[in-house]
Amino acid sequence: MKTNLCHVLGIEHPIIAAPMGPDMTGPELVAAVSNAGGLGILQAQFCTPPVFRQEIRRVRALTARPFGVNLLLHFPVADQVAICLEERVPVLSLFWGDPTPYVGRAHAAGVKVFHQVGSVADARRAAAAGVDVIIAQGVEAGGHVAGEVSTLALVPRVVDAVAGRPVVAAGGIADARGVVAVLALGAQAAMLGTRFLASAESRAHPHYKQRLLEADEGGTVRTILFGHGWPNAPHRTLRTAFVEHWLGREARGQESRPDEPAVGQTVIGGRAMPVLRFMGFPPNGEASGDIDAMDLLAGQGVGLVREIKPAGQIVHELVEEARRIIAQRLLGLVQPA
Ligand SMILES: Cc1cc2nc3c(=O)[nH]c(=O)nc-3n(C[C@H](O)[C@H](O)[C@H](O)COP(=O)(O)O)c2cc1C
Question: Residues 293-337: pLDDT tens digits?
Fold first, then answer.
């Protein structure tokens, strides 16, 4: 099941594991997905630059296959961009900002650029900036959500708007039915976040993974509540008792008060840090304290996630099941009886 984009990227299957920060998608998850023939994308932006470089090298030690490195452009990225280009990462994946300043330099270093958008207007801007691949993110998505349109409505519009440029679909895809659906919409790959968050290799805290297994499609909300350090940025998170308590008072979460009480602590890239209330830090395995008061980011596809599995197995099952759906169910619809 290879699309043109698979040939361009040198991957076997049109399956991409979304980058999930600050510390959910480390080298183990990235390599597991790439080794299974998909594309894993690292998020290690909140590590110090030397640790960020080590994390990239660790991915390379674990896989010889293509992979990506993600940067959120809301935060300073100059050092990280320089490292990505020095390390000649195969793919630089960008989100939340203007990719224009980075495209020429990336191409000069032989690095392909992905940019994630949530609207047709932003897709057009990304295409004009010269990015190689546009990721159309529907409002169902977990994590920070760029737009307000569903994946089903957005993807074909973006495909038409950026004619010829490869489009990847993200948001609400959590099983093979979703993968086949977005290929039918014209996407050349599916990018799944929440499904891979509930994988063995994801760095999500075990209690967070358990919460994912328990939640259904109504169990998330798009809010700006966890705005400490990144205010007024909509994100989709689980509707925990903490979130329910504060909904309607989201303005409080935008204040970024330095004296905000800590709900726990964690370690990211070797650095211990408090998790202050309303910080958008989903709990990693090192987190302790009141995990349910942290930002348990997840998409509406969470209702389809019922088991923690190795990431490579998730890729293989998605591909096998997608093949079966296409070959048996869909082909049967157009073949004479
Ligand atoms: C826990 C979590 C953290 C995320 N962090 C990032 C990030 O750091 N950078 C980024 O580009 N996208 C991030 N995203 C969004 C993903 O790129 C993607 O759009 C989303 O996961 C797709 O929707 P799905 O979760 O329904 O599969 C995150 C998503 C989740 C669930």
Answer: 999 999 999 999 999 999 999 999 999 999 999 999 999 899 877
Give residues (CB < 6 A) around ligand 1.
18-21, 24, 43, 70, 72, 95, 116, 137, 140-144, 170-173, 192-194, 197, 282, 297-299, 301
CB 107 within 8 A of CB 131: no
Pocket test for ligand 1, best of 144, 158, 294 (most atoms within 8 A of CB): 144
**Residues paired with 266 in a beta bridge:** 273
Tokens 């990847």 found at? 168
- In ligand 1, the atom with minimum distance to the C-alpha of 45 is 8
DSSP letter at 33 equals H
Please give the C-alpha separations between residue 213 and each of 113, 172, 200, 310, 321, in angstroms, as whole numbers: 33, 15, 13, 15, 21
Mean pLDDT of 253-270: 96
Burial class of residue 33, CB neighbours in 10 A (0-12, 13-18, 19+):
buried
| pLDDT score recorded for residue 216 | 98
Measured distance CA(39)–CA(29) in Å, rounded = 10
| pLDDT score for 337 | 72
- Collapsing DSSP states into helix, strand and coil, what is residue 113? strand
Which residue's CA is the closest to the ligand 1 atom numbered 28?
Answer: 143
What one-character-per-residue DSSP string does 139-197 give? TT-SEE---SS-HHHHHHHHHHHTTTS-EEEESS--SHHHHHHHHHTT-SEEEESHHHH
CATH code given to domain 4-201+310-334 = 3.20.20.70
Residues of the chain with CATH 3.20.20.70: 4-201+310-334
